[in-house]
Every structure is written in structure tokens, then in C-alpha cells.
Amino acid sequence: MEVHKLFQNSTKNKPRNVITYDFSTLYTSIPHVKLKEEIKLLVEKAYNGMNKKFIKVTKSRAYWSNSKTTHTLGVTCNELTHMIEWLIDNTYVIVGNQVLRQTIGIPMGTDCAPFLANLFLFSYEFRYLNNLLKQRNFTVLNKFRRCVRYIDDVLLINNDNFLKSHKHDIYPKELDLTSDDKDDQQVHFLDLDILIVGKGFSYKIYDKRDNFDFPIVNYPDLSGNIPSRQSYSVFISQLVRYARGCLHFKDFQLRCIRNFWPKILN
Known about the structure:
Layout: H1 3-10, E1 18-23, H2 32-50, E2 54-57, E3 62-65, E4 73-75, H3 77-89, E5 92-95, E6 98-101, H4 113-134, H5 138-141, E7 147-150, E8 153-157, H6 162-170, E9 177-178, E10 186-189, E11 192-197, E12 200-205, H7 228-245, H8 249-260
Antiparallel strand pairs: 1-8, 1-9, 2-3, 2-4, 5-6, 7-8, 10-11, 11-12
Helix pairs in contact: 2-3, 2-4, 7-8
């Protein structure tokens, strides 16, 4: 996520408030019946929107097509829906001598879990916002003009606490949004500490490990057995991340010292 672009494009008006939410139990609470219904609707929308019969799959790419060849896998809308439903219905875990089938929720850690969870939430969001657009309810639509979500984390700017009282108008009752924010002027979103200052925002890297009462070894020492090329690559990539995630140079400088040279702070 390009942090500076997010705030530049989202704060043409003076920010009044900012708040974050997350789904307390997203993966483990998704009902299978609703998940299959929403995914099926999205798959059908995708095929109808592209006006194509197949998704062609090769070793190097996947693409839309209206023709089916014998040497290339072509997946129809019904076939793709059936594959996803089979995947949802056939999740098993072994506990001792027992084999248990998961009947609610999706297993965390699998390749498909983030995609299924993200698409499931998107389906409800799209329906809610699309209905508002059809009703020309621009007052409520503008409440979500500065809203972003990354999987189960939500950031809202100038939402004026609207989502808190209308969350179940958008999302199913099985999922609950909660917020740990102490106020609506400073929040933590993903790895950012976001603060409203005057007519704009200030932001810097946030790491909850900063509050631990014991030292953290963030990166390997070059005296170890890890190849130096990889070590330097990690170091440079983190410098880039810190630079993008800090609005002010002093915050970037402090983050570098804290993570790379913590002894200086002691």
C-alpha cells in the first residue's frame, strides 16, 4: 500500500476523525452456506462482466476466452463455482484418532483462506454500496469515501462513527467488528501510527514490540552464517519501507536507530 498516496488522495477535506476496526473472529466464523452463496455470485458477475465462457489456464498464465482447445484447460463459470464449493466442503483435521470435518469457518494458513475471506467481505460491501448508489443516497456514500480495508482490518476517515451503528447493515450478523481505539484522533492501522495534526495527517511506522520490556533482535548480525548479500538486501528493503511509512525524517531516523542500532538508545 502506498501510504502517502492514500492520505493525499483521501484527505482533500480537513480530516475530522479517524477510526479503525477489525473482525474479531473472521476466518473461524464465516458460515459455509453464506460463503458459497456470495462466492458464486461474484464468480457469475466476473464471467458476465467479461462476457467470456472460459478462463484458460496454462503453465505461465490464466486468461479469459470464448474458445476451448483440447491442449489448454478451460474452466467454465459452473466448474469454477463447483471447485470452490468442493474446497469449502472438504476441509478435514486430524485430532488423535479422530478425523473431523470443518462445518463452519475456513482454516487459517491455507493458500485460499485470505482470498475467500476477502471476497466474502467484498461481496457484502459491494451490494451495500451499490444499493446506496441506486438510491442516490450520496450522504451515506460519502461516509465511506475515505474507507479502506485490508483483509480483516478497516480504516475509516471522516466516517463520524457511522459504521459502528450500521455494521450489520453491511456485514452478516455472524461477523462482528470491534475497535480498540482510545480516541478518534490517533490510531494504529497495520504497521502505521496515524495522527490527525491540524489540517492533515502525520504518520510513522508502528511496531507493538517497541513496548515490550525486553530487547528484540530484529535483524541478523553480519558475523553470523547468513550470506551477506541477503542480509544487505533485507536491510535496504526495510529502509525503503521505513521511508515510505514515515512522513517526517526524524521518525524515519528514530525507527532506523531503534531497529538497527538499539544500543544507541540505551
